[in-house]
Amino acid sequence: MATSRPIIEVSHLTKVYKTDVVETVALDNVAFTIKKGEFVAIMGPSGSGKSTLMHILGALDRPTKGTYVLDGENVGNLTDDELADIRNRKIGFVFQAFNLLPRTTTLKNVMLPMMYAGISKNEREVTAKKFLTMVGLGDRMHHTSNQISGGQQQRVAIARALVLHPALLLADEPTGNIATAQAEEIMAIFQKLNDEGHTIVMITHEPDIAEHAKRIIHVRDGKIVEDGNGHRQKKIKN
Amino acid sequence: MDYQELFWEAISTLTVNKLRTGLAILGIVIGIGSVIALVSLGQATQASVQSQIQSLGANLLTVQPSATRTGGVQGAFGGGTTLTLDDANAIATSPLITNVQNVSPELSRRAQVTTGKTNTNTQIIGGTAVYTDVHKVTLAGGSFITQGNVDSLSKVAVVGPQVVTDLFGEGTTPIGSTVRISGQTFTIIGITTSKGGSGFQNQDDIVYVPLSTAQKVLFGVDYLSSIALEAKSSDVMTDAQNEVGYLLLGRHKFNDPTQADFSIFSQQDILNTASSVTGTFTSLLSGIAAISLIVGGIGIMNIMLVTVTERTREIGLRKALGAKKKTITLQFLAESIMLTFTGGAIGILLGVLASYIISLAAGSAFVISPSAILLAFAVSAATGILFGWYPARLAADMQPIEALRYE
């Protein structure tokens, strides 16, 4: 896809966790840009800072230093409620553990973000049905989340992430809790969404899952150590 | 997210765990139920005491001898012998007394009454023809004591319905029959209608005889146990009380009213005392019930705190998807208010039912006070807000990443 306007622009991004005794630098002066239509995998071992990066990119946490511009809006130091609003309008989350509401129908789960966006109930239902059908669960709308398989639950989560047309689809180990065969289905959906123009950032530690992305960013010790195309990655100076 | 939606969300969440919801509201049900039942019970008691006192006579003043003082020793209350028929006549005829309408001199003693086969120990009241006016006594049959009976020391008696039941059996009309009181034979000339009294002074368990007969024939005394006065209206009760007080102080040669050998009670004094007693009783009961309501509220808070902890991941998710602090606060507040409101509604129903059963069992009036119900509703809603606030704020203040990570 041709390069276009940036969705994510981070510069000098630093996150320091302080306890009484020690300071831990989780992210150290990180900078990169992700443009519209990119499919980026962020890889790294545990403790590398990739989760911290994901939290900041997801507007779930604030950086200690540096700037983060998401889809033209500076997400630097907003209040909790302003961050909630950004998450609602601009980011679609797909979590490792699916995070659907238990004992609640898939339809209601998909309707949830639209409720916080203040969309009328009728419109919510129509939109939710459309997206559930799109992920192939048109016949599971009235099943509760514990009545369907892990792969199906993750597809519900994807439908939920998409209903408000987010600028960024942010997936955190999306295949970590599901069987291999179903994992391939999930990745196929991500690839199809990317082909349609969705910008996707995916956190993973599995190389073969990361291979689905067009660009892979490797993080280690809070720094970006590699940033390159899927197969032809180039080493960047560190 | 509008309020109607909040309401349905709360209901669907609460119906997921019915047992816990049920147990949580039980405290409120018991609290509100007991407040309603006990307040109603208190008010019923108050109403029945008031109506009993009022049935003793309207605008009624009673003069009674004070406790006798003999060389510094205070005798039993009402045991004095200082009131006489002359006192009563003086009150009736004095030009200084302008606010008293009727004067009823009375002598009251307990005595054994017998028909030969049956007998009962009852109150004997010696009175005059004016007694019926002053004490609002009406007759179910026959006639009351006349001035003629009093003048001629007639051995006639008017009996209360309880006495009829005790001596002749229920439903009989023994006018013309004779009874023996302290060995003297009396002819029954009338039966009073029931006043339905009970407790300390049963107004249906009385035998009325002419005052003169009681003094001279039955008990051999020349004093009175009390003088009942009917004031001209309820507005002049205090004036009448003062007039009679001055007259009697003069007649009994006392300068200092605190040393007087008599006292004057008004119906209102007794009513006020009784009201304040039953009022205290009602507040005491409500206070105890209110404690159970607080305990119920703490139960709600406990359940809500458990709920918040248990649903940490859900809260994290909702925040990740864009729920603001206010929305989360309202969601949890809505749940606790739903709990207390449902509990309050069930409590009111049970409370009303309980007061109905109490009124049936005690034979008292079924009183439901709308203010108690209104208060109960307000209190249950307030309990929900008060005890739901802290858990709701706790949920709203969670950081989404912490909440999402929570296992």
From TrEMBL, chain B:
UniProt domain ABC3 transporter permease C-terminal: residue ranges: 288-400
Superkingdom assignment: Bacteria
Keyword Cytoplasm attributed: no
Keywords, ordered alphabetically: Cell membrane, Membrane, Transmembrane, Transmembrane helix
Transmembrane intervals: 21-42, 284-309, 330-358, 364-390
GO cellular component terms, A-Z: plasma membrane
Coiled-coil portions: none
Subcellular location: Cell membrane
Domain spans labelled MacB-like periplasmic core: 21-244
Keyword Membrane appears in the UniProt entry: yes
Example GO molecular function: transmembrane transporter activity
Pfam families: FtsX (PF02687), MacB_PCD (PF12704)
Membrane topology reported for the UniProt record: Multi-pass membrane protein
Entry's family note: Belongs to the ABC-4 integral membrane protein family.
Protein name in UniProt: Multidrug ABC transporter substrate-binding protein
Organism whose genome encodes this protein: Candidatus Gottesmanbacteria bacterium RIFCSPLOWO2_01_FULL_49_10
